[in-house]
Amino acid sequence: MSAQPLAGKVALITGGSKGIGRAVALRLAKDGASVVINYSSDASAAEEVVKSIGSERCLAIQADAGSVSGIEKLVKETVDRFGKIDILIPNAGVAPNADLEHTTEEMFDRTYNVNVKGPYFLCQKAAPHMPEGSRVILVSTSLCAFSPITPNYLLYVSTKGAIEQMNRILAKDLGRKGIRVNAISPGPTGTDLFYTGKSEELLARLASASPLNKIGDPEEIADVFAILTSQDSRWVAGQVIRVNGGMTVG
């Protein structure tokens, strides 16, 4: 296999300046892709990613990934710069802590805008610029299949349930153009945001949910994104790949 299997490919990643999105951007760039990362507000984090990859192959775009106007800006600037989109990863998301009683309308609308509306219309606007053989990789959560889940995840997981259904049908819709659609469903992953506000006791409990007894690393999630962008996954479509060290099985 080529040392740079994605040479000549263009990837667009929302929420690509931090956490899992950042790890994916760096991995795809290592594999040879040109990468466009979207960020909402932290320009310095985005510019660090651009610097790491090199400005000739990486572009950072500030935009609201939960609005159609922001999505149109992202797609236009990507195509203006690189001419096409081969890999689309709607990774931007918000994860409110809200059960039914504590969900406000504002919270609901914001969460669905970023987590559902954004990926939906990003796929719509990007698809005309995606050649045959392109990949869409949606992002869910292993909490969708985790039986001990607690009520405070209600709002967040409801949006990811929508993503998993979107994945199932988009694989048929965009499959007509030769575009493969799949979803990755991470378990607990050690990003800065994940660690914020969690006690050592809670972290140990979360780690113990996996038989491997550890929290995942962003790079371990990025490895699976890399597999789904490669020719080795050319016969995979409409699947939800749960990357969680065995936290959920089946």
Strand content is 5-15%
Structural class: alpha/beta
The percent range for helix content is 40-55%
Major beta sheet summary:
7 strands, parallel
Q: Tell me the CATH topology.
A: Rossmann fold
Cα gyration radius (Å): 17 Å
DSSP summary, beta strand count: 7
Low-confidence blocks of residues: none
Shape: globular
Mean pLDDT: 96
Number of separate structural domains: 1
Summarize the structure.
The protein has 250 residues and is of the alpha/beta class. It is 42% helix and 14% strand. The longest helix is centred in the middle third of the chain and has 22 residues.
List the helices and strands and how they pair.
Layout: E1 10-14, H1 19-30, E2 34-39, H2 43-53, E3 58-62, H3 68-82, E4 87-90, H4 105-126, E5 135-139, H5 154-173, E6 180-186, H6 192-195, H7 200-207, H8 218-229, E7 240-243
Parallel strand pairs: 1-2, 1-4, 2-3, 4-5, 5-6, 6-7
Helix pairs in contact: 1-8, 3-4, 4-5
What does this structure look like?
One of its GO terms (molecular function) is oxidoreductase activity, acting on CH-OH group of donors. There is one protein chain. By secondary structure, the protein is of the alpha/beta class. It has a single domain (10-243), classed as 3-Layer(aba) Sandwich (Rossmann fold), CATH 3.40.50. It has eight helices and seven strands; from the N terminus they run E-H-E-H-E-H-E-H-E-H-E-H-H-H-E. The chain has a seven-stranded parallel beta sheet with strand order 3-2-1-4-5-6-7, with helices on both faces. The longest helix has 22 residues, at 105-126. The radius of gyration is 17 Å and the shape is globular.
